[in-house]
Amino acid sequence: MIQVAPVAAFIGLGGNLGDARATLAAALLALDGLPETRLVRHSSLYRTKPVDAGGPDYLNAVAELATELPPHQLLAHLQALELQAGRERPYRNAPRTLDLDVLLYGAVVMDTPSLQVPHPRLWERAFALLPLSEIAPMRVPAAALAAVAGQGVERLVGAPWSTCGEAQCGAECQR
Q1: Is 166 within the bounds of a domain?
Q2: What is the spatial distance between Cα 62 and Cα 28, in angstroms, rounded to a whole number?
Q3: pLDDT tens digits for the chain (175 residues)?
Q4: For residue 2, is it within any domain?
Q5: Which residues are catalytic?
Q6: Is residue 124 domain-resident?
Q7: Cα–Cα distance, 101 to 157 (Å, whole number)
Q8: Range(s) of the domain holding residue 108
Q9: DSSP assignment letter at 1
Q10: Residue 31 sits in a domain of what CATH number?
Q11: How many separate domains does the chain show?
Q12: Is residue 35 part of a domain?
């Protein structure tokens, strides 16, 4: 059997319905439980106004995974987790309990009908770029951050929001 080296995949997490903080914390645990996947670290939580939509404010974060799953298999697992969290898709940009997006998958660039990597709107959205830059600053050009500086994203500080075993958000998760 050929040994596949894990790939660093960065996943955007978001939600604005129900107890979004608890849903995102549960999603982190579920990501860590995916086959051939390990949660490496996650960002702080960020609060943002909905983009191109209505509804309550969103909570957003980014998680880094080390995964051996191919991109489309990873996406299938993410969509299953969304469904388990009660995600519905009544219309584009509808409020949601949980949104999980593949932002980056190693150095892969792909454009298929079901998956685009890097995420097609990553470089336009502060709610994805700021948490990504917190845990992987070398992945986010300064010009990209400058371009989204006026989008009104608030980093939430205080008690840790996840239960992955790490006392400080943004650092590596402990086992």
Answers
A1: no
A2: 10
A3: 566 789 999 999 999 999 999 999 999 999 999 999 999 999 999 999 887 777 899 999 999 999 999 999 999 999 999 999 887 765 666 678 899 999 999 999 999 999 999 999 999 999 999 999 999 999 999 999 999 999 989 999 876 788 765 433 444 565 4
A4: no
A5: 87, 96, 99, 101
A6: yes
A7: 23
A8: 7-155
A9: -
A10: 3.30.70.560
A11: 1
A12: yes
